[in-house]
Please model this.
Amino acid sequence: MVTRLLLIRHGETVWNGEGRIQGWSDSVLSERGRLQMAQVAERVAAYPVEAIYVSTLGRARESGEILAARLNLPLIQDERLREYGIGKLEGLTWADIEAGYPEVARQWRESDRFTPLPGEEGRLVFFNRVWSAMMEIVERHPDATVAVVAHGGTIAAFLHRLLNLALDRSAPFGFENSSLSMVDYRPGRPRIVLLNDTCHLNEHQPVLGEARESTTQDEPPIANSL
Model:
């Protein structure tokens, strides 16, 4: 039996646009983020989705509500799908980190290993809670397609463990806002079908009259350290 997992990162938030670290802190979706989620919802509507699971953080719930309205399904909230708790760095920009935590900034730039963060949740705790949530979803929905709306770090943690990568290594992948990744999960034989796919996004029309690049994570260069 195979469970197809549609892994969706939430839409762009105001803090994403400002380059601020979010973690457990929250920021509402921007106008662009709501448009992004409407676009990914249209794409996901082509799949026979049985259930939608979301992180309890507001940006994921708001994103999930857009998807749920399109698919006419209820949301199932799970706090284990929350982003990594970044501790004292939440709400800061990369410039703030370089000024206030220069050694942390240096390690992020120079090392391919996980960088300890002041006041963080704890990497092993994070990986374990994400994995337990995902395995419960698989057990509840054998031979079904399930959408999971969460965070860049959450999706990275799941794939990191799925691929049995070393936990002290930085994740070798990142995720755009409203990206779609897909895993066909079969015990012992999982298959990554899509990774950070954004072909559904029509970003040619700038939001609020301003064109700019999308942010790839809930935080600046630290994203792949989650």
About this structure: The two ends are 30 Å apart (CA to CA).
